[in-house]
Amino acid sequence: MDYKAFAHKMGGYTVLYIEDDLDIRAYIVEFLSRYVKKVYACSSSEEGLRLYKEYKPDILLLDIHLDGMSGIELATVIRKYDQHVRIVISTAYTNREFMVQAIELSLTRYLVKPVTNEELVKAFEKCWFELEEKVSVVLGDGYSYNRDLAVILKDKKEIALRNKEVELLEYMIAHEGHILRYEQLEESVWKNEVMTLDAIRSQIRNLRKKLEIDVIQNISGLGYRFQRVVEIENV
């Protein structure tokens, strides 16, 4: 296991760890503190929610059994207004109901106790991948889209996007693989603006020129389909 590479990936991220077993909590906090920017730790879901609201960590590591709200209940509360934070839950058991909840909450991973260092590292590497994917979307052939900067990147060169181009690209990425009809684009991207087909096509042409790769396909008489050139491998 390459812990140096792990530290390089995780060095900018913060973690909130909630575990009511003092010995386990102390061990995990000591281990993670070597690699991440900051670990906030507590024993209850109520205190955890307070810490979450105060520090907005990138990753939550939750025990499923906590005083007050369970780890699942806490994750449910947080997921209502935060789809970005990555959530890992540790549990002493698994069952079908838990698996359904894990899917609904978009959990990055669940870990069955006792958790080894290697399992923890793999779970956090998956968190890293998901966090990076949310910021930087690989489009293919050396192109990527950086959400934070709102630019397309090609060989470290930044290609600026206009506001409407950003909205259009974001919408297409969110609906990758689906046929996006002209009227759907008008209603969802332009909202209250009245757009002609020629105007929509013009915006698409401008975005295509900046991408220079075939990720926006014409669907004759209907609209467009967005499909990245390469698939991103899961960690």
Report on this model:
The chain is of the alpha/beta class and 235 residues long. The protein folds into two domains: 133 residues, Rossmann fold, CATH 3.40.50; 86 residues, Orthogonal Bundle (Arc Repressor Mutant, subunit A), CATH 1.10.10. 44% of the residues lie in helices and 23% in strands. It contains nine helices and twelve strands. The relative contact order is 0.10. The C terminus is likely disordered.
Measured by DSSP, the beta-strand proportion falls in 15-25%
The tally of beta strands, per DSSP, is 12
Determine the N-to-C terminus distance.
Answer: 14 Å
Written as H for each helix and E for each strand, in order along the chain, the element string is: HEHEHEHEHEHEEEEHEHHEE
Structural shape = elongated
Radius of gyration (Å):
21 Å
Number of helices: 9
Helix amount:
40-55%
CATH architecture name of the largest domain: 3-Layer(aba) Sandwich
Q: Name the poorly predicted regions.
A: 231-235
What is the strand and helix layout of this fold?
Layout lengths: L2 H8 L3 E5 L3 H11 L5 E5 L2 H11 L3 E5 L7 H9 L6 E6 L4 H9 L4 E4 L4 H19 E5 L2 E4 L4 E4 L2 E4 L2 H12 L4 E3 H9 L6 H15 L4 E4 L3 E4 L9
Parallel strand pairs: 1-2, 1-3, 3-4, 4-5
Antiparallel strand pairs: 6-7, 7-8, 8-9, 10-12, 11-12
Helix pairs in contact: 7-8, 7-9
Brief characterization of the structure:
By secondary structure, the chain is α/β, with parallel strands linked by helices.
Pick out its properties:
235 residues; alpha/beta; Rossmann fold; Arc Repressor Mutant, subunit A; 2 domains; five-stranded parallel β-sheet; four-stranded antiparallel β-sheet; 12 strands; disordered C terminus
